[in-house]
Amino acid sequence: MKILLVEADFVREVGDRQSFFTKPSAPTLGVNYLGSLLRNQGHEVIVLDSLYEYLRTGFVNQVDVVEGTKDILEKERNIECVGISITSPTRNYALNIAKEVKTFNSRIKVIAGGPHITILRKMFLEKFSQFFDFLVIGEGDRTLPELMNALEGKMSIEEVAGIIYLDSRGKIKKTPPRAILSEKELDDINIVPFTDYPQYQEILPNGVVPAITLVTTRGCPYHCTFCYSPHLWKKYRTQSSKRVLAEIEYIIEKYKVRNIRFQDDTFTFNKNRCLKIFEGIKAKGWNIDLYMHTRFDCVDEDIIKDYAEAGGRDIYFGLESGSQKLRIAMDKNHGITNEKILEICGIVKDYSLNLGLWLIFGYPEETEEDIKVTYELVRDIDPAEVTCNPVHVHPYTRLFTQCEKEGIYTIKDWLSNEQDFFLYYPNGQSVVAYNNCVHFRKVFNKKKVKPELNIDDVETTVKEFAQYAK
């Protein structure tokens, strides 16, 4: 079959060719991994994510995968199936992609998968059955190849576990759930092959793919109130250090990659595995730059030291808030004091690593005092970069349950509302959260905090935004 796999995404304003090669983006892992699975099965696969759209259109400044889908359908007129990976914030863009596909040719089968589909399941297909034919629930490693076999008549649809679909009479059917992969299966390259990137290699100079993402675990062992990872992945599982090192060697040899980004939710949770990976990288003498993100409560100097020696350049922490009260409410880093956080950040800087922080504003019961405490802690940490967001509510998280009880949202909002993100406060208080994000980015995304900026500025800013919101 000829298949198009699309990573639904926002319309993005991006930099020029020079900015890409200065700080290259990595291809999206999920759809490229699934593409590798299907190519191994003998299918012809085109993968479309924002990066590929950016490259194939000649480094345009605005990237729109909906328009990219339309263009590929016109040029590749014999596509038989389109798969769309969907997160909750990108669901409306995914819907637009599916509409374009069905408008172009209603006989093309449209398959949806990804976090949003696994969370909403049957409700999604009931609402949008005119645009989608199949939903893949949970991990697609085995489900998607089997579904392709069924579409080719090699097995019946009913035999494919882990799907929801419309039968020939337009009735919604559900097959038994698909078992998650074991750690032994995650290590098996016949089940979970190395990911290939042939389309990017064809376009990029000398076939070099400068940055590649690796995810060496499934899920997260923690249960933050705002995150749906536990609901999505069910159980935390890891690949062995041997398997991880084998894949790193493969992508270095095949794609000459020099920037590897570990995108695991918590890469350092298993210290022993983590250290073995870093030791293996050092032993091979690979000249690569590494990026990872983790938590303050599962990292120490041994990990930081070995990471730096293996080629570590960047490390990002989910601080979320400087307020211990809010961290406890979020069920995040609540066993770590601010003093310990400062100590860890000091060690990171001792090894000349770029330190980044994620911050959340607008969490329930956040006060001006919480914002001041966060400001003081971030000022003392002096990070190279901060990423700030108003707290986003995702379906069936604990924060969603709280919103539902308070009458703020119901699950139907994710089926009928066109907004990308759902904030905890759907009223003027969300403006305060948003503007605190802007303020912190302006101050802390610099090498040094301006000396004339003091804590009184934060107090004034919060009050001004509160007045504006009214």
How would you concisely characterize the structure shown here?
The chain is an alpha/beta fold and 470 residues long. Helix content is 43%, strand content 16%. The protein is built from 21 helices and 17 strands.
Q: In terms of topology, how is this protein built?
A:
Blueprint lengths: L1 E6 L4 E2 L3 H6 L6 H12 L3 E5 L1 H7 L5 E2 L1 H11 L5 E5 L5 H14 L4 E5 L1 H6 L1 H7 L5 E3 L6 H9 L11 E4 L5 E3 L8 H5 L10 H6 L7 E4 L2 E2 L10 H5 L3 E2 L2 H15 L3 E4 L8 H14 L4 E6 L6 H10 L1 E9 L3 H7 L7 H13 L3 E8 L6 H14 L3 E6 L7 H8 L7 H4 L12 H16 L10 H15 L1
Parallel strand pairs: 1-3, 1-5, 5-6, 6-7, 10-13, 13-14, 14-15, 15-16, 16-17
Antiparallel strand pairs: 2-4, 7-8, 8-9, 11-12
Helix pairs in contact: 4-5, 12-13, 13-14, 17-21, 20-21
Describe this structure in words.
Among the domains are: 2-174, Response regulator (Rossmann fold); 179-294, Transcription Regulator spoIIAA, CATH 3.30.750. Helix 12 (241-255) packs parallel to helix 13 (271-284), helix 17 packs across helix 21 (455-469) and helix 20 runs antiparallel to helix 21 (455-469). 43% of the residues lie in helices and 16% in strands. The model is unreliable at 447-470 (pLDDT under 50). The N and C termini lie far apart (56 Å). The strands form four sheets. A seven-stranded mixed sheet has the order 3-1-5-6-7-8-9, sandwiched between helices. A six-stranded parallel sheet has the order 10-13-14-15-16-17. Strands 2-4 form a two-stranded antiparallel sheet. With 470 residues, the chain is an alpha/beta fold.
